[in-house]
Every structure is written in structure tokens, then in C-alpha cells.
Amino acid sequence: MQVPAGTVEAGEGLESALLRELQEESGIREINRPAPLGSYEFDMRAFGRDELQRRHVFQVAPTGHLPDSWDHTERNASDGGEYLFRFEWVELTEAERLLPEGQRRLLHLVNR
Fold first, then answer.
1. Can you give the residue ranges of every domain in the chain?
2. How far apart are CA 103 and CA 92, in angstroms?
3. Cα(7)–Cα(17) distance, rounded to whole angstroms?
4. How far apart are CA 53 and CA 44, in angstroms?
5. Is 44 in contact with 52 (CB distance < 8 Å)?
6. What per-residue confidence (pLDDT) applies to 77?
7. How sure is the predictor about 81, in pLDDT bands with cuts at 50, 70 and 90?
8. What does the radius of gyration of the chain's CA atoms come to, in whole angstroms?
9. 21-66: per-residue pLDDT in tens?
10. Which string of DSSP letters, residue by residue, matches the chain?
11. What pTM was computed for the model?
12. Rounded to the nearest 5°, which phi and psi values hold at 22?
């Protein structure tokens, strides 16, 4: 389990990157104004990468109805591949239990 995430491209603002990554990875195109939850640094050495990532976290809500679950294929990913993502809504308490530490760090700030 993971949340949509990605990299800010050169010359791109945080909100633009968020909208682009959300659309690329989930197919969601229409959201209410993103609410910033905060940012933090995450050490990737435990995953074999000698880098320190600056992660920015937002709460978003779709403007239209979304199904309980859906599939979306990300095409032309940064590595040139295609990836099938399966999405489903889960309760926040379940997300807190299932998400990796680096993706649940600011989950307690989500407006419940």
C-alpha cells in the first residue's frame, strides 16, 4: 500500500507537481484546493539510496464522485515503463496501520 507521490520537476511549483503526479498515478483530475499538511526530510539509505528526500504532504479531496475502488495505468513513467495501480478507499486508522512509515508520518494531521 502506498499513496500517490512523485518528484517536483525543474521549474515546477509544488501544487503543479501534486496535480500532475495525482493525475498520472491515479487518473484523478479534479480536486478541491490542496491543503498543505507539512513537510519533512526522509533518509533513503535504508532503501539502498544515498539521498535525503524533502517530502511535502497535502490533503486533497476529489470534486466529483469516485468509485470505492478503481484501476489506473500510469504510462510513460520516469523510467519509461507502465504501471498498473489499484486504488481503494480505506479508513484512516487502517491507513495508519498499513502505510510505510515514510508515507504515514503526517497522517495524524488529516482533517477527519
1. 14-109
2. 13
3. 7
4. 7
5. yes
6. 67
7. confident
8. 14
9. 999 999 999 999 999 999 999 999 988 999 999 999 999 999 999 9
10. -------PPTT--HHHHHHHHHHHHH----BPPPEEEEEEEEE-GGGT---EEEEEEEE--BSS---SEEEEEE-S-TTS--EEEEEE---HHHHHHHS-HHHHTTGGGS--
11. 0.85
12. -60, -45
What single letter denotes the amino acid at residue 38? G
Single-letter residue type at 87 = F
All residues at 6 or more sequence positions from 82 whose CB lies less than 8 Å from its CB, including other chains: 73, 74, 75, 76
Cell 504501471 belongs to: 83
